[in-house]
Amino acid sequence: MTETKAPTLAQQKKEELFLQRTNGYDVLTQEDREAMERYCTAYKHFLDEGKTERECVSYAVALAQQAGFRPLERGAVLNPGDKVYRSNRGKGLMLAVIGSKPLSQGAAIAAAHIDSPRLDLKQNPLYEEKELAYCKTHYYGGIKKYQWTTIPLALHGLVVLRDGTQVPIRIGEEPGDPQFTVGDLLPHLAADQGKKTMGDIVKAEQLNLFVGSVPLGEKGESDRVKLGVLDLLHEKYGMVEEDFLSAELMAVPAAKAVDIGLDRSVIGAYGQDDRVCAFACLQALLDLEGTPETTAVCVLADKEEVGSLGVTGMQSAAFDVFMSDLCQAQGVPLKSCYESALCLSADVTAAYDPNFADAYESRNSAYFNYGVCISKYTGARGKSGASDASAELVGRLRRLFAQHGVLWQLAELGKTDQGGGGTVACYLANRNIDTIDAGVPVLSMHAPFETTAKLDCYMTYKAMTALYHS
Ligand code: MN
Ligand code: MN
Fold this sequence. Notes:
Blueprint: H1 9-17, H2 30-49, H3 53-66, E1 70-71, E2 83-88, E3 92-97, E4 107-113, E5 118-129, E6 132-140, E7 153-160, E8 166-171, E9 181-182, H4 198-201, E10 208-212, H5 224-237, E11 247-253, E12 258-260, E13 266-269, H6 272-286, E14 295-301, H7 318-328, H8 334-340, E15 342-345, E16 349-350, E17 372-375, E18 379-380, H9 391-403, E19 408-410, E20 420-421, H10 425-429, E21 434-439, E22 441-443, E23 450-453, H11 454-468
Helix pairs in contact: 2-11, 6-11
Bound molecules: manganese (II) ion (2 copies).
């Protein structure tokens, strides 16, 4: 038997003065556990349905319509409690629930991105070599190229035919579908390859997608395998080789989202950066009951992985136009909404990886199961590229999260001079909107199979719910 001793003075002082870090499983209620599982089941479904930004938008629009959202029309009268959305060219999505307070008192904005690293097909992709047919790819986003070889890939996208017909493509997702792959050299012959550095082990121009090997036509004729592949594409989709020029096709990992670990505490899937936060922002908005005080806005942006540029990226005026259309309905100048708004830039951060401890600074790292991660700043080296939120803003979030029972941690991405990364935060902050990064810690970020902890996914949903109630 052990006696319960009274805490020492030092223990009491530590309790009072030290920063307490909490493993979420030490505080999670049974009710929260069940809600977490339900939430993560819906999230895994979102991942399987949305492997490209276009598919994410289609799926999110369907969910939003079910929840009573309607397309925002310019000049429409908007009342508190109204739910509206606008698709940005089918690749980005903005949604809002109008609050009881006027937009001159700001908005609560959650901004995530729905594009993920992948292998895009080049515009003239299809070729045959030694009677094997391949498609040339151009990688999108920051990848370790070797990781994209020898895994099953699916082909997703859109082809615009000569007559303007739009043909959606999704091959490799249904049971029985064929899939695709990029090859790697056998270890038996990899003596030279083994001496190369990471970026050269597999070169960009070796990321060629195998698509077929059965010849069509008579022995001795040229390009018979390429012809066989084109014939199949023509039969199924009505496309000819020239139609690749007006297509966006992408090879993405074919694997589905699954539970990882005997205790099922982790989710493994492609594209969790940043669909894990996108789903949290979206689901929290769809779940809002009644009329929030502050207008709640969810932005799902494209092109973050390549700099947030372009008409569907976070730097595009599409967001300002959406917000000014909301403001116009209340006769509020956009600038007064922005200057009072609060934005959580919802993007993932690196979780501490004990297998690669050298890359991390353990005192300022994010950990699995310690909740949603706030990053005061991102960037590289001397915070280059960071929007660096203020102490006041972090203070405001501390109070908000405490009020709503959100388990959170604050961290930066790895060792100071080891690398770095950016998010959409700076593009919202540039608009005169108070913005801070908040998201899920991820292991193996940008790999074809990324992992996240269910507890952190759920806490990020709770964080977005808290934001919408701010
Ligand atoms: Mn991201
Ligand atoms: Mn990323």
